[in-house]
Amino acid sequence: MTFDLQPTLHGELLRLRPLQPDDYATLYAVASDPLLWEQHPARTRYQEPIFQKLFQESLESGGALVAIDIITDTVIGSSRFNGYHPEASEIEIGWSFLARSHWGGRYNGEMKQLMLQHAFRFVNSVIFLIGPDNIRSQRAVEKIGALRDGSRTDGTGFKSWLYRIHATEKSS
After folding, report:
1. Which residue, 58, 95, 98, 53, is CA-closest to 75?
2. DSSP per residue over 63-87, as a string?
3. What is this structure's pTM?
4. Residue 9: how many other CB atoms lie within 10 Å
5. Which of 66-70, 93-97, 155-159 has the lowest mean pLDDT?
6. Among candidates 107, 94, 118, which has minimal Cα distance to 40?
7. CB–CB of 157/170 below 8 Å?
8. How far apart are CA 86 and CA 88, in angstroms?
9. For the range 19-26, what are the long-range contacts, defined as Cβ-Cβ under 8 Å and sequence gap of 24 or more?
10. Are the C-beta atoms of 31 and 97 separated by less than 8 Å?
């Protein structure tokens, strides 16, 4: 079975669907908040030229998803599947961000759970690469059951903590 890197996934709060070029304006409206990036290694992603590059890379990745609030039918963020390694039975979930209006509740957890449920149909292990100063994201993946498993340099050259969840350890 081939890993579908851009599924449409439905939860109670969110719908995740493949990122499309016409999502740029609505997604940038979310990403233009500097506070989203204050703990991230790439703190300037709120600046439009930097976001344009991230958006283009996300489109080209073939694994980017847009998060849509089901109640308001508005784009509230994005996430991505990346680095699928069938021989290691592993994939990364990353590049995730949500509008601050959706922080602190169940949205991030549901987004990750939907992606984990999908990923575990194809792999035994999901990793998250998170900057050492990004405490908010570290706590968020710990809440869904990820454990720190060393470090790794991410695709942009930043040294990151590696968090991992195995299919057999998945929280619900």
Report:
1. 98
2. -EEEEEETTTTEEEEEEEEEEEETT
3. 0.93
4. 17
5. 155-159
6. 94
7. no
8. 5
9. 19/58, 19/59, 19/64, 19/65, 19/66, 19/78, 20/66, 21/59, 23/66, 23/75, 24/55, 26/74, 26/75
10. yes
In the chain, the percentage of residues whose pLDDT exceeds 70 is 98
Instruction: pLDDT band for 42, please (50, 70, 90 cuts).
Output: confident
* CA distance linking residue 152 with residue 131, whole number of Å: 10
- pLDDT at residue 171 above 60? no
- Region 152-156: mean pLDDT is 77
Please give the domain boundaries of the chain with CATH numbers for all domains.
Answer: 9-169 (3.40.630.30)
Type of residue numbered 156: T
**Least confident range of 8-22, 40-54, 107-121, 148-162:** 148-162
CA pair distance 52, 35, nearest whole angstrom: 18
Q: Which amino acid is at 30?
A: V
